[in-house]
Structure formats: structure tokens, C-alpha cells
Specification:
Layout: E1 6-10, H1 14-26, E2 30-34, H2 37-47, E3 51-55, H3 63-71, E4 78-82, H4 87-95, E5 100-103, H5 108-126, E6 136-138, E7 141-144, E8 149-152, E9 155-156, H6 161-172, E10 177-179, H7 180-188, H8 197-210, E11 220-223, E12 227-230, H9 235-242
Parallel strand pairs: 1-2, 1-3, 3-4, 4-5
Antiparallel strand pairs: 6-7, 7-8, 8-9, 10-12, 11-12
The structure holds calcium ion (CA).
Amino acid sequence: MNTKTHIIIIEDEKNICSFMATTLTAQGYKVSTASNGANGLSLVTSSCPDLILLDLGLPDMDGLDIIGKIRTWASIPIIVISARTQEQEKVFALDSGADDYITKPFGPSELMARIRTALRHGNRLHTDSLLSLRPYRADGLVIDFDKHLITLQGNEIHLTQVEYKIVSLLAQNSGRVMTYASIISNVWGPYADDNNRILRVNMANIRRKLEQNPAEPHYIFTEIGIGYRMLEDKPESQCQAVL
Ligand code: CA
């Protein structure tokens, strides 16, 4: 397969845009850039890229509107580029269909990790839904979704039904952030009270069972003000599943 993965960057800050373009080109991606929302949208519609990096603060349009427009016709992974102080904006972006976000300033390795995860989840949706049901494996934690079985270093972990739902949701989306609202509606249903307290209580219990030190979690990280992100499962097991 010689076709390069095509990434569109919509970002008006020249330094950030050229840093990302250089990093991605060096990694073998095909890159196109736009410095405002209108050009970005027309680039996306004309070339249908594999992934979009989107700054929310653009001179002519609100990035959230761009997400909304793209999501009416395409499920292309969108990673939002955001400033550190804009928690609420990140949550809105994720809940309106962005796949993930990256916070300025960021380095090349963080950028590449986010992109790999988003592409992997994007491909998974398009190609093989069964792939997402292969067991999750990372650093001694194994979740067998078929058997509803969780083991840590070979020892079975007993979770309540709700705790299991939360962990398996995060594991099936490992590497990506999940907002509080999206976890709550997935676990308790769309009409559940949009109150994080019950989720936090469950997470505290989950961490007591899963984490060696619940105060410094290794498997499930808190993204403050936004949600949770689970340690990405390891690609080795992915290869086995494909074979
Ligand atoms: Ca900007």
C-alpha cells in the first residue's frame, strides 16, 4: 500500500502549523494546511482526508461549527488543538464529535501518539467491528469482553456490573479521552442525570481494585475537567488478532 495517509491541518498560528506539518511530513504523512475555517472546510470536502487537526480559535469561524458541518457527512477522525485553559471548549468539541484533543504546547511524540490512536479507532470503525472485541491487553491487565473477565497479572479482578461497564467502555476506546457526559450516557443511558459524582465514586472503587497506587493511576488517567483516558492497549496483541 503506497498511498500516504493524508492529514489536513486547520490552524491560523503559523508556528504551530508549520511545526505540525514538518513533524508529520517527516513521519511519511501527506499534509495539507489551511489558515482559516472556510479554506479548511473546502479542503476537507474536496480531498476527503484520513484525519483532521483542527484549531478551535480560527479568525473567520468557530472550530465547533466546523466539527458540526463535517460530522453531517463524514466520520473522518478530528483532533482538536486547544489551549490549556479551555476545558469547557474541549468538552463541547468532544461531545460534538471530535475524536480527541491535544493541548498547546505539545511535542512531536504526543502529537504522533494522538494521531496513531485516532487513525486506529477510525479504521476500526470502518473495517472490522469484531476487532474491537478482541481482548484488551496492557501491562498485565487483560479484559476479555466475551467472557466479561478482567485479570491483573493473572489474578481475577471482581468488579460490579456498573464498574465493568465503565472499564470496558474505556478499554474499547483506549488511548482516547472519553468525556464524563459520554461515559455517563453510555453506562447509565441517555436520560441519566448529568452529574459526575456517581461516576467519580465508581472510578474511585475501580481504581482501588485495579491500580497499585490509586492516587497515581497507571491504567485509567483523569483528564481534569474533561473525563478519563485509559492506557492504550498494546499493538502486539492487535497483530495477533489480525493473524
Ligand atoms: Ca488560533
